[in-house]
Amino acid sequence: MTAMQKLLQLPVNAVNMVKTVQSQVQGQEEDKSPVLTPDSGQQAWYSALQPDELRHLRSGGTGGGGGGDQEERAPLEEGGGGGGGGFQTQPLRHDDLKEMLDSNKDSLKLEAMKRIVAMIARGKNASDLFPAVVKNVACKNIEVKKLVYVYLVRYAEEQQDLALLSISTFQRGLKDPNQLIRASALRVLSSIRVTIIVPIMMLAIKEAASDMSPYVRKTAAHAIPKLYSLDPEQKDQLIEVIEKLLADKTTLVAGSVVMAFEEVCPERIDLIHKNYRKLCNLLIDVEEWGQVVIINMLTRYARTQFLNPNINESLLEEGGSGDKTFYGSDEDEDEDEEEKEKKAEAAAMAKRKPYVMDPDHRLLLRNTKPLLQSRNAAVVMAVAQLYFHLAPKAEVGVIAKALVRLLRSHSEVQYVVLQNVATMSIKRRGMFEPYLKSFYIRSTDPTQIKVLKLEVLTNLANETNISTILREFQTYIKSMDKDFVAATIQAIGRCATNISEVRDTCLNGLVQLLSNRDELVVAESVVVIKKLLQMQPEKHSDIIKHMAKLTDNIQVPMARASILWLIGEYCEHVPKIAPDVLRKMAKSFTNEEDIVKLQIINLAAKLYLTNSKQTKLLTQYVLNLAKYDQNYDIRDRARFIRQLIVPTEKSGALSKYAKKLFLALKPAPVLESPFKDRDHFQLGSLSHLLNAKAGGYQELPDWPEAAPDPSVRNVEVFTLLERVTTLTSVPEWTKCSSREKRKEKKVEKPFYTDSEGESGPTESADSESDSASGSESSSGSEESGSGSESEESKEASESEEEEEEEEEEQKKKKKKDLKKPVQESESEQSSEEEERKHQRKSKPRKSESESESDEDEESESESSQSESEDSESEAEVKKKKKTAESKPPPKPLKKESKKEKKEMSLLDLDDFEPAPSPQVTPVNTFLSNSLVTDLEGLSLSDSVLSPATIAPSSALKSYELLHRITGEGLSVEYCFSRQPFSPDANMVAVQMQFTNSASSDTKNLHIEDVKLQSGMRVKEFPEIELLPAGETATAVMGIDFCDSTQAANFQLCTHTRKFFVSIQPPVGELMRPVFLTENEFKKEQGQLMGMNEITEKLTLDVKCRNEHAIVQRVTTAANLSRVPCGSDKECSPPVPPPDYPVHRFAGRTVTSGSLVLVTVATKEEGAAQLTVNCEKMVIGTMLVKDILQALTQ
Amino acid sequence: MIHSLFVINHLGDIFLEKHWKSVISRSVCDYFFEAREKAVDPENVPPVLQTPHHYLISIYRGKLFFLSVIQTEVPPLFVIEFLHRVADTFQDYFGECSESVISDNVVIVYELLEEMLDNGFPLATESNVLKEMIRPPNILRSVVNTLTGTTVSAEIQGVIEACVKLSGMPDLTMSFMNPRLLDDVSFHPCVRFRRWESERVLSFIPPDGNFTLMTYHISSQNLVAIPVYVKQSISFFEAGSCGRLDITIGPKQTMGKTVEDLKVTVHMPKAVLNANLTASQGNYTYDFTTKLLVWDIGKLNPQKLPNLRGSLSMQTGVPNPEENPSLNIDLKIQQLAISGLKVSRLDMYGETYKPFKGVKYVTKAGKFQVRT
């Protein structure tokens, strides 16, 4: 354009200004900007000026205000083609923005970006700014950067080449030390839909999947479906990443990775096996949206892996009575045949094997139930559908209340929930009956909600509540919303068909409606009455007569057609009226609607066949009229009927049967819910709502006939934990995994541990078999503690084998057989052992708990297992025994016990607990322990206790956890066993002793609902299946008190009761002994001066003035070890006279490992000085108090 | 999951769009507009619509439609719940959720949407997480009770809204005098469910700012004390095309508290052209296009009962409506929870400072409908 042309445009634009004042409001945003507002006319002027002057002018121009209008119009005109002005303004406007983006000031850049984002938000095109924006991707200002990212994600797809300029920035971002930056870089990089960078994305995702930050890993999970949609060929590689992330143990990642799984490879259900239990257990802590995805996925999973829990019930139903309560009485008649067959099959199966719920199935139900209380409607719905599809019938009821609660939410939520309730209420009516009133309709409800509520009310109607429901329906008929009234009449019809008791009442009510003022109401009633009459026409000829009269008034075609059909069908009941109706109809035939015409022809035909004398001429008249009708259907029908009913020479045999054809007995229509059988779609899904398969919908599989192998869900950690906590022999089939792996998995909840043993297909209540056997010898647990160590562990392992045999049955049988010879040879060796073995053959897990905490032993047995091979042939076992033999004895005490034994028992020893594992056992602990003993003057005799029991149990103070009376017969005591808690070195082992003094058995003792101060952790003891009356059992749990004396609160649950209990540790139990030499001690002490040192003067108790007593009292008060005294006694300040010894003790706090140093310097006449040095001042102070008390009393 | 979001005002203008995957043309909304036309009232638009290539799931909030575009199977409630969460977030941030406010804060809105979804899957929806970027408000804790009732059924539904501004990791325990009243409850995710199950106390570590701690329902078995009574007579005369209306409201069981913000709304039948009424207290308006009669009473004076009476002019030649309209009543009672639910104490653990605690009870009518 020449300058001249531009000049000429000015007046035109001026006109536009006036015209477009209205759009000013929308243009506000731009109006505010001083630089954004020129119109095309002004541009001509500006272009001749220098930039500086330009700005001046523009800001002046905005004052006028009109400028913005033109600008606003520009993009609108673009598409229309009327916009010469539009094309002109754009470059300029964007020049402004470009200029701002190119400036050095972040504020200007930010302003420009904000404006650009506002454009995007309104759906305006800002793509030509790409080069200017992409330059700022490396901008330091985080605000600008964020907006640039927004822009990039929106436009990168359109400008692929330019988008590549930004990639290096993101690649740098991926390496940033800040996790948030890494995450956001990955997020944007993966959101850029540019195919060229697929390999880069893949690499980035893979790297991020192993990032140490869970947030970055979450982002990686989000990125997976993005990449997949960009390039489906990456599927295999992506599945690998998914598999890896599925194993992640953080709640943050769980939801996102399952979402990715669902989008990329929902068919790979096998990837879930190993993660199933973890997902179940994490579920409650996952964020809401992730919960929905996980629950939906697990529903599908469960349908492929478990058996139908209702299989037995459906058998009962077959017997008769049960049927009606769950199914609408006449809704499933047609299915009956098939169903019976199925049931028969199922029956055959069930006879073979009674249904017992897989514990994993139970786990899922149990862990999802609390989520019914979620505030998020989608979560509640997800749980509800899970229960509907997976739970035993008796348990499904729990979801009703939660669903009814959702009905008080937003109307959209109501809409979806009601759809699902409608489907559920067909199958499980009883569930919603108590909430009948919640489905009453309010006049303010939107129509679609009203109709759905009506549907539910109809489904819920039965003999007992029908009168209430009908009364309610009566009010609805008066509503102003006619669609709703029509739906109500339909509903009444359905109630009448379903419940024979009220059929007449309903019919009468509907007949009354026939005199309603509203034609629509009448019409709808006619249609419904027609359907009802078909059930028992002979009874209701007066109604038919009444309806015949209506033909004079009612105009709604459908209603007229229905009446005519009725009269034709039942003309024998109204022989006088029928021909008269036909006469009237023949008269008005040409003016009728098509459906009415068709019915007139039908009526004529039927009357001709039954009463040809009176109606022959009328019929011919009607057929003639129809012959020339405009509608070909009607012409055809007339021709067809004429041939059928009027016998001629040509018409063959057919006319003989005309009467049979026309007046055959027609089955009454089944008025059924549109929601019937909709539950083959997974409830809560979009597909269910639409009653059509939506894209990407995953079918809900049918229950398998036989359960797939449940052991696929076993995870290695199980067996590991099992070993760790219960010191049982390791099942031979698992190899010990690497040390690191084990450490990670320690955190896992102990559910695994106890379910391991019973993961066979039979569980639940029937698991008594193994727990009962446990009770026999549970009392033996105490003495076993004093038995020789090797024996203990060996026996334990044997008994475990016994259990395995019971539980794992065939699977293990083979291997067990291999083992037997060994056992036998053992028993030959030692008759004493033989005896004990018998006695304890079925020794249960809990009875071993005494020794559970013995880390030394455990770790040994573990490591032996890790070394052991899968195959356990005797030869091999022997070989191994030999190698173990040749190993240096692990520790002096072991030696002692071994000496005692014969050679063969030595072999046993290393079969089950050979070489000590150096990783687990803090050697120091052990050494110091033995030293303590040494110093205490307990000489090492042949009959010495195992090192673990050195802290003499008599010295351990027991505390009461649950009194016999409050516990209703169950009393629990606990003590701090002072043994390292092997599953987690940072935990304090708490040994609990359960005594059941009640007259009945206590079952399923376990811990729930642990309440802890932040940072604290608890490792629960494995559930005690059965504690028979009068028996005692022990278990060990670990608590990480976080170096504080805060109580750990939790519930102790039995199968019937829950008790609130808390464990508060004395400060002395928060540490473990360490071994230091005197010099080391002094050195450390030197570094813990000042605030970290607390000194108290005291007078020792009279009984406590000898060395032994002091040491004993101090070590009783606190779990410390004594520092051996060197020859010199001039050590700690103040230097004591040589006669008065100084006692030093050392330990570390369990959680943080801070050193605790205690010095007791004795002086004359029982005077002494106590010094505690500890980094943790609180601990130090408390410890001083405790030791003071111990020494002075 | 969620592909795109369009925010549409009551005039049918799309004033905000956001895409989380590739861009979908706004013409997809035409299907929605079609349904909107058909539905007459905006509330009647089906929340889920199917188009040849997409599914549209929408919510109606504050005269705005939030319309999301879906391409594959997703639980509809998931989307609906999320859209409401978006609207809640706007309300939380800007005090209201309206077109003007969204347009004024379009950049923040856009950033929020960007944070809330990643690739269509919710990322951060918790207000306190989002507020790491923007402002939080004051300190007060309130118990709000809403009462819903008709002459046919009555129930109480309540919420406990919390406003927490405590530093550190306070572990709060809230207990009630009469927790047995509660029939059904749902919780914010921070509440420890097990503890509630066994002890009936709410134990939680709260997020910062305003949030709904719990909603509850009081079973209909417990008698609901309806705080007001209504005497009304609405009649339409066959001859003369007019009708009469007479409504009086009086207090019933208000436990000595004043009933405030009393408002009566009547959806008149189509035939009612105009209303010529006198109100002894408050103002009334009649909108003849929407047929909505609103009588704003304000405080209920027990000495002089508010009354609204007068004549209704009707369209001639149209048969009289056979059903009388039902009355919707809104009210509010301060310092009273009609359910009788009382907070007994609130304890804080885990932090050493002393927090300010306060509780405010309010009763509000929910869907109080009088059938006439």
TrEMBL record, chain B:
The record's Gene Ontology cellular component field reads: clathrin adaptor complex; cytoplasmic vesicle membrane; Golgi apparatus
**Does the keyword Membrane belong to this entry?**
yes
Where is this gene product found? Golgi apparatus; Cytoplasmic vesicle membrane
Q: What is its main location?
A: Golgi
User: What is an annotated GO biological process for this record, any one?
Assistant: vesicle-mediated transport
**What domain of life does the native source organism fall in?**
Eukaryota
**Domain MHD residues, every copy:** 126-371
What is the membrane topology here? Peripheral membrane protein
**What keywords sit in the KW lines?**
Cytoplasmic vesicle, Golgi apparatus, Membrane, Protein transport, Transport
Q: Which InterPro entries match?
A: Adaptor_comp_med_subunit (IPR050431), AP2_Mu_C_sf (IPR036168), AP_mu_sigma_su (IPR022775), Clathrin_mu (IPR001392), Clathrin_mu_CS (IPR018240), Longin-like_dom_sf (IPR011012), MHD (IPR028565)
- Asked if the record carries the keyword Secreted, the reply is no
PANTHER family for this protein: AP COMPLEX SUBUNIT MU
The record describes the protein's role as:
Part of the AP-3 complex, an adaptor-related complex which is not clathrin-associated. The complex is associated with the Golgi region as well as more peripheral structures. It facilitates the budding of vesicles from the Golgi membrane and may be directly involved in trafficking to lysosomes.
**Record-stated family:** Belongs to the adaptor complexes medium subunit family.
Q: Please state what the protein is called.
A: AP-3 complex subunit mu-1
Taxonomic source organism: Maylandia zebra
